[in-house]
Structure to design on (559 residues):
């Protein structure tokens, strides 16, 4: 990624309130796979792990009279334009659709607006378009619309360019086929396509004389091919309604999304019945939600809730002092009792990250890396060997730590405070800050300001569900400046162009081993994300990959 790309992303993130690690990731969070042993879902028939675009309400279901749905969520994007903010799901509010969708559990690509595709060579792909699709204004979907949309997404003006840097060109092969070329082999390119919304070229270009004017006008009156069409939008409230042009099968007539940042207010609105879906609930809310008969949807994969322990400063130079010493960083990892954190503090609602950034079962996860065991004696031995013995009173040194998105009752705050206490047991004085200021949180993440010694932010592997996503942040080329390891950098470049799954897995495993040994991350747990749906709302999709529900699959059953 270029520096320019990261600056675009940062501006977008500031508008959007923390895309990558925040307690407010756009729209409703979905859940983890049904195989998770700690799922809180009351009945698996209520939530689908395989539901996708085009599915229908199951046969024999008696629908309820309620045709309106209200979601009270922790944050909303600053624009309904799906290319303005890098963290936004390409289906934003289900107004838009993409060429490719992703399996909720594995992240594997599956058909959407493209019914099929083939890889012509290492840098060329042909996509066959779904026939009969129309935009909300009645225009048919054409190859011109796809070409225009991909070109717009790659324009550095838009935040989508951050993850679309290898896009080179798009051309029409025939009336139903688009050929897309990349500038270099990119094993994740199909997954990247899955986040690019397809927009109507003729409609968009009719909105003004300049792209700036057209973009502004489109954001006020957007048009897509999705199951719901735009009604109104502000950063505190959005309304969509069924699009009569859709090829899908929605049943809820109107969906309203409200921004409600306070989790207590969210919960109260849910319990009062004024909202039927809420997100990012604290553990303390589970009792009330269970009593109300809510369907609880948990997200575990897709985000590691550990912390950065940089070995380099904000310019990339090796750090001096404790954090520049690998033995110290390893000692910190040995000093964390993750079992107690997971079982007692987080009430068993997540799992250990096993000393690596990617969750089990996903590309890049490896059995050759295991969690640092909880070993206080080993940790102290390493600290002594590194030249930091305990002084009078047991203190070794002082370090700074901050937790981002650490609102009251949040899992982030609980984890941050727990990490601080475990490190104190090693004789490390931790100056701790629980943060809620989004601008500063993002400045730290993107290396605009020097980070604390430990920066507890978390790191997404979604939407790609692939180790390359989080590994990128530890490369020298990314200029995020977490570590400097030439072997790691070379392996990252190698895996990006390796299409043989077994060979690529071996490369990613080597990278996981290097990162584990360098200990530039304080490994902790996988994600802990909790949403709730009303007891008569059905059709929720458990999806680690994305953080929006498929609105067309939602329906109310008769009480």
């Amino acid at each position: 990624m270029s520096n320019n790309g990261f600056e675009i992303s940062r501006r977008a993130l500031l508008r959007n309130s923390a895309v990558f690690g925040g307690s407010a990731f756009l729209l409703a969070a979905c859940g983890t796979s049904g195989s998770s042993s700690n799922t809180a879902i009351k009945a698996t028939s209520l939530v689908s792990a395989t539901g996708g675009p085009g599915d229908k309400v199951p046969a024999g279901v008696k629908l309820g009279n309620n045709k309106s749905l209200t979601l009270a969520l922790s944050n909303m994007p600053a624009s309904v334009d799906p290319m303005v903010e890098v963290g936004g799901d390409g289906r934003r509010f289900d107004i838009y659709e993409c060429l490719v969708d992703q399996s909720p559990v594995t992240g594997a690509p599956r058909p959407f607006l493209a019914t099929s595709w083939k890889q012509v060579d290492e840098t060329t792909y042909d996509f066959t378009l779904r026939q009969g699709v129309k935009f909300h204004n009645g225009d048919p979907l054409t190859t011109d619309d796809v070409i225009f949309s991909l070109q717009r997404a790659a324009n550095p003006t838009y935040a989508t360019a951050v993850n679309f840097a290898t896009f080179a060109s798009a051309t029409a092969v025939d009336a139903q086929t688009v050929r897309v070329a990349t500038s270099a082999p990119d094993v994740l390119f199909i997954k990247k396509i899955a986040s690019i919304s397809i927009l109507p070229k003729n409609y968009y270009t009719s909105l003004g004389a300049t792209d700036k004017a057209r973009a502004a006008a489109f954001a006020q009156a957007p048009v897509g091919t999705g199951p719901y069409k735009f009604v109104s939008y502000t950063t505190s409230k959005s309304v969509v309604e069924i699009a009569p042009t859709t090829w899908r099968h929605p049943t809820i007539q109107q969906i309203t999304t409200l921004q409600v940042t306070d989790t207590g207010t969210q919960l109260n609105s849910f319990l009062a019945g004024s909202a039927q879906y809420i997100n990012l609930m604290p553990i303390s809310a589970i009792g009330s939600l269970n009593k109300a008969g809510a369907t609880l949807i948990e997200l575990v994969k897709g985000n590691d809730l550990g912390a950065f322990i940089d070995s380099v400063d904000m310019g990339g130079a090796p750090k001096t002092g404790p954090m520049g010493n690998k033995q110290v960083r390893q000692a910190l990892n040995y000093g964390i009792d993750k079992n107690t954190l997971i079982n007692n503090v987080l009430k068993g609602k997540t799992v250990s990250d096993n000393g690596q950034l990617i969750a089990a079962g996903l590309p890049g996860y490896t059995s050759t890396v295991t969690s640092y065991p909880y070993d206080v004696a080993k940790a102290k031995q390493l600290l002594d060997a590194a030249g930091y013995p305990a002084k009078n009173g047991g203190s070794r040194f002082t370090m700074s730590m901050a937790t981002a998105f650490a609102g009251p009752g949040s899992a982030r705050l609980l984890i941050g405070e727990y990490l601080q206490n475990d490190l104190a047991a090693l004789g490390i004085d931790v100056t701790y800050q629980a943060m809620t200021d989004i601008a500063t949180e993002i400045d730290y993440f993107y290396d605009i300001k020097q980070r604390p010694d430990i920066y507890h932010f978390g790191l997404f592997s979604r939407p790609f569900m692939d180790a390359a996503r989080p590994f990128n942040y530890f490369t020298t080329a990314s200029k995020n400046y977490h570590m400097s390891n030439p072997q790691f950098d070379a392996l990252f470049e190698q895996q990006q162009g390796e299409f043989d799954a077994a060979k690529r897995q071996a490369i990613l495993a080597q990278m996981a081993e290097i990162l584990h040994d360098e200990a530039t991350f304080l490994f902790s747990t996988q994600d802990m994300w909790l949403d709730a749906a009303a007891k008569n709302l059905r059709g929720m999709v458990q999806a680690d990959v994305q953080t929006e529900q498929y609105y067309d699959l939602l329906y109310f059953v008769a009480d």
